[in-house]
Design brief:
The two termini are about 20 Å apart. The protein has one domain. Helix 1 packs across helix 2. By secondary structure, it is α+β, with helices and mostly antiparallel strands. The chain is elongated and about 55 Å long. About 15% of the residues lie in helices and about 50% in strands. It contains two helices and 13 strands; from the N terminus they run H-H-E-E-E-E-E-E-E-E-E-E-E-E-E. The longest helix is centred in the first third of the chain and has 30 residues.
């Protein structure tokens, strides 16, 4: 099987526009598998958006959120609690901005083998939450290279609610790139997170590059682990679609609208 990639936030569906083909054609089996791999890669990209928003806000309480600069200073101090093992991250606060220098860390939303530089800029800080702009380029995570460009509104408390406006992308080990644009929501309870929403995903570098509708439903990941539940559905031209189902472990199953089925490997939890 071809190897898909992780993480939070999709879709080389098998429609060959130039030829008028859909995923029910004879050539569709491999294309449907590539679509499924792109879905997994989009999950990894969205995980980067939400995972670093959690890292930036997990330790914040009403007591350390008097201002954006106070929140940034507190967030830098908590970085080593949520990115492990100890010593894998150096976090520096300057005004309302935190810069994270990360080397082979594990973190929320299934982020593993994370290396690179990430910034978090705080605004609209109140005792109950904040808005955080997350940015990174050439970030390595879960076998993918991720560019993060997301604005996340986070509520504090035992379970966080995250509203994500994202234009992030990820390139997998095989060279395919997915870019997701739109808004979705997430939760984080201190151990596991979910993602839910519908947005657009553009795919490049695969056999069927195009833009597709993407729906996350009950997509769940925990610290340093593969997705444990949920589905990602990609919908393209002529109502062609592929549904990827996650049930835990390093594989996921997929079903195409033309009846194609199979299993893909995931780069996660290792």
């Amino acid at each position: 099987m071809r190897t898909g990639t992780l993480v939070f936030a999709l879709a080389a569906l098998a429609t060959l526009a130039a030829c008028g083909k859909g995923i029910t054609d004879d050539s569709s089996s491999g294309l449907t598998e590539e679509a499924a791999e792109s879905a997994a890669l989009t999950g990894d990209s969205a995980g980067g958006d939400t995972g670093f928003a959690v890292v930036a806000t997990e330790g914040l309480t009403a007591g350390n959120m008097a201002s954006a600069s106070a929140a940034a200073t507190a967030a830098a101090g908590f970085a080593g609690t949520y990115l492990l093992p100890p010593g894998c991250v150096k976090a520096t606060a300057a005004g309302d901005k935190v810069t994270y220098e990360v080397t082979d860390c594990t973190g929320p939303y299934g982020m593993v083998h994370v290396s690179g530089t990430v910034t978090a800029v705080f605004s609209a800080v109140t005792a109950s939450g904040a808005t955080v702009a997350i940015a990174a380029s050439n970030l390595k995570a879960n076998g993918a290279t991720i560019t993060v460009a997301a604005t996340v509104t986070v509520t504090t408390g035992l379970q966080k609610t995250l509203t994500v406006a994202s234009q992030s992308n990820a390139t997998g080990a095989r060279g395919g790139t997915v870019t997701h644009r739109g808004t979705y929501t997430g939760t984080w309870d201190g151990a596991c997170g979910t993602l839910t929403g519908t947005f657009q995903t553009s795919v490049a570098g695969n056999k069927a590059a195009a833009s597709w509708g993407t729906t996350f439903a009950g997509y769940k990941r925990c610290k340093g682990m593969c997705p444990t539940a949920g589905t990602i559905v990609l919908t393209g031209k002529l109502n062609s679609s592929v549904t990827v189902v996650f049930t835990g472990g390093a594989t996921a199953t997929y079903t195409g609208s033309g009846g194609q089925t199979g299993t893909i490997k995931l780069a996660c939890g290792t």
